[in-house]
Amino acid sequence: MRPIPLGRLSPVVRLSLPVSALRADERLRGIALILGATVLFSTSDVAAKYVQQTMPMIEVAWVRYVVFTLVAVLPAWRGGATVLRTRRPGQQVLRGMAILLSALFFLEGLQFLPLADAAAINFVSPLLITLLAMPVLGERIGLARWIALLVGLSGALLAAQPGSAAFQPAAAFPLLSALAWAFAMVLTRRFAATERPLATLFWTAASGLVVLTLLLPFDMRWPTPHELALCVMIGLVASGGQWLVVLAYRLAPASWLAPFSYLQLIWSTTYGYLVFGAVPSAATIAGAVVIAGSGLYTVSRVRART
Q1: Residue 257 and residue 290: Cα distance in Å, rounded?
Q2: Alpha-carbon distance 142 to 234, whole Å?
Q3: pLDDT tens-digit readout, 160-196
Q4: In terms of pTM, does the model score above 0.85?
Q5: Domain locations along the chain
Q6: Which of 72, 216, 224, 266 could be a cystine partner for 205, CB 3.0 to 4.6 Å?
């Protein structure tokens, strides 16, 4: 019997496959997934910055995680509760706490910093992912990829042009967010071979929701229908981004995917112009070109190897 091409399998069946069943050349698909995730995360960040002008941060995060948990549980109706079981509950909870801390630190930073400054500082995460991938995952990082990573980082700083506002104590929030995110992504790659993506999403959502529910009474008020709709939208979009990230890290090494996180700055700059009227400068455009060049170089390296 001829094997069924992976592209013809249903999404639920593909999510249940072990990473060894996926083709080696699917790391290019992993890059495409991480690019999609950057678009969704930028959308979520801009909407969160907008709604936090009138709503408490913890409440925004809580509604987001309620939606996140519902999205993670829905596939269990079709595949059964077994798809949510994990062999590593401790590591799953640890990953969930890292994702939650990353979100809370970044949301807190948005209350004090311009979006471009917070994004620029937060973009040390790809470098941190690469650094952690070596001792934790045993990944080998060649000189060419180090150069691509550093070029992408320089492009992000050039595009964002951090002003004086970025160099205040509040800058620690996006830095801590980047560190927590890098730790979570390395954990994602570490147990990708044994854990189902659906299980990872559920444990991330559920563990974060428990913590936020305990914090909610200390920082909440009744939202307007408009605010609630925005928070639900943030939850749906952020959940989609988390889903794409988990899938991407099953298909490609962490050090390969890290440089493509810089592209999120391009989407954030675009949203900033459309929502807040922030006109991108010549430096922003130049930085975007540098970022795109770094990403295209990494894609060419992937194609050469596969």
Answers
A1: 17
A2: 37
A3: 565 544 456 777 888 888 889 888 888 887 776 677 7
A4: no
A5: 30-305
A6: 72
